[in-house]
């Protein structure tokens, strides 16, 4: 079964061409998905980096705290026996403890410091010039009392305090996390600290790695999107080229068919004129000459004149038939339904194939060109029945479907049907192609199939005007 539906191209009105619209419809979703995917990835990745950075910073700080607690514990164990036993007296024990603390170092900038209860520096290896100086009222750049806060943490049982202090390795102020413990018998605050620049470096390094990974992912996504766009564009270009090539081929074939049809029609009209009307006119002329001879000889020419009139009537009938084939006058004078009924009667008389016709009056439901198209479809279908169907019955139904705003035509015969019902529009199927093209040109659709009970069924629908 074949179903053909028309697809009328929109008129040129300055808008984008249809193929450009197809290209945009194909590419824009890819670009939109890629853009929003990239945007979501970028936002989520930044949020993840921020969260992970805070988590890593928190873990490093916790690790530094534990490290400081361990260092203080080591320092306290190193001076514990001297602090408790005070060999050589308190002054000598304090001197020994100071020496031990001065010699205790760890990592690059790790050292221990000690202050008495008044805030006087007792041990400070990187800055020996501070020994003996009272730093109780020393403030950092954030206006915090450094030694007072450390002493308070130590007296309260030992805790951490973050402050700004000079970094010996860089010579610049840096954030330092300190931990202080208290030696109550001597009133000393013993402490150490770690500079937090390393934490910032590790966090920044992590963020740089993550952002590099994000840029890599975004680059890959962009390349994939670009590749997809290129594939779509190339595919549409290839399809466009193929369609153009196919359209050119079809146009050439259509042009050839039109020329063939014109030549066949001209040949048919020429043959009808030469073999029919021309021969009849020659015969009339011959009889008229014979009549003139009889008149000159005073003989009666009535028999020849009667025969001439009969031949003249036949000539007039042939002229009418040719005129009707070229353009049916009944279509203009009495309408489509009457013209189809007349066509059916003439077909039945000439072929002896029983023709049943049910035709509703169409009126102004169709334009004149659409009526001519339906008439030609009926004419072509009957010609095909006579030539190929081997049928003895034909049924033609023309009706109005006002509910669907359509005019429907159906033609059925009881012949042998199509040899290839799935592809009736073969290269030789010129008549069927002509019917299809006539219906399509007026926005209709055409269905051709073999009937279940045998024969061929043709259905055509045209929208009402």
From TrEMBL:
The keyword rRNA-binding does not apply. It is a multi-pass membrane protein. It is found in: Cell membrane. The chain crosses the membrane at residues 20-41, 220-241. Its main location: membrane. One of its GO terms (cellular component) is plasma membrane. SMART domains: Cache_2 (SM01049), HATPase_c (SM00387). InterPro entries: HATPase_C_sf, HATPase_dom, His_kinase_dom, sCache_2, Sensor_HK_TwoCompSys, Sig_transdc_His_kin_sub3_dim/P. Residues 374-465 form the Histidine kinase domain. This is Two-component system, NarL family, sensor kinase. It comes from Cohaesibacter gelatinilyticus. The lineage of its organism: Bacteria, Pseudomonadati, Pseudomonadota, Alphaproteobacteria, Hyphomicrobiales.
